[in-house]
Amino acid sequence: MKTFRAFLLVIIFCAVLMAMPLYAAQLNTQSTLVDTTPPNLVPAPAHETKFAPAIDDLPLMPDLNPVPDEDTVFVVPSAGRIAQSTAEGPVDIDDVYKFYRRSLPHLGWKVVDARTYMREGEQLRIDAHANGKVTTVRFSVKPN
């Protein structure tokens, strides 16, 4: 009796395996996804994206590099995070603000003014200061 049950289970298993490709083929013929963006219009990144160490979901503008030992992070479970990060590099102050004004809305941040953004109960502040050819940018995130 046990041998018959085992034989029956093997037959059922084989039948299911044989039917799966037919079912998958039916599923694939129902697709209505249309990609309207030609591949040549999607730019490839020219550089590896770096992120602010203390604010790990904040990309750094090209040519900005994190300043070691300048990061602070406090996380309060019921209130949110307070984080500060500093980066510097040979960039123009105006280009810093333009870069973040163009890129942050794609990450869910809403523009409040040229230096302030809001997202999901958090406020991001960006302050850039030049000293000769080097610009220092301080990022701070706090609960709204």
Please give a handful of descriptors for the protein shown.
144 residues; alpha+beta; 7-stranded antiparallel sheet; 7 strands; 27% helix; elongated
Summarize the structure.
By secondary structure, the chain is α+β, with helices and mostly antiparallel strands.
SSE topology sketch:
Elements: H1 2-29, E1 65-66, E2 72-76, E3 80-89, H2 93-103, E4 110-113, E5 116-119, E6 122-131, E7 134-143
Antiparallel strand pairs: 1-3, 2-3, 3-7, 4-5, 5-6, 6-7
Description:
The chain is an alpha+beta fold and 144 residues long. The protein is 27% helix and 31% strand. The chain contains two helices and seven strands; from the N terminus they run H-E-E-E-H-E-E-E-E. Strands 1, 2, 3, 4, 5, 6 and 7 form a seven-stranded antiparallel beta sheet that branches. Strand 4 (110-113) and strand 5 (116-119) form a beta hairpin. The chain is elongated. Residues 23-33 have low confidence and may be disordered.
Give a quick account of the main beta sheet: strands, pairing sense, barrel closure: 7 strands, antiparallel
Uncertain runs with pLDDT below 50, 5 residues or more?
23-33
Intertermini distance? 69 Å
| Percentage of residues in DSSP E strands | 25-35%
- Secondary structure: helix percent: 25-40%
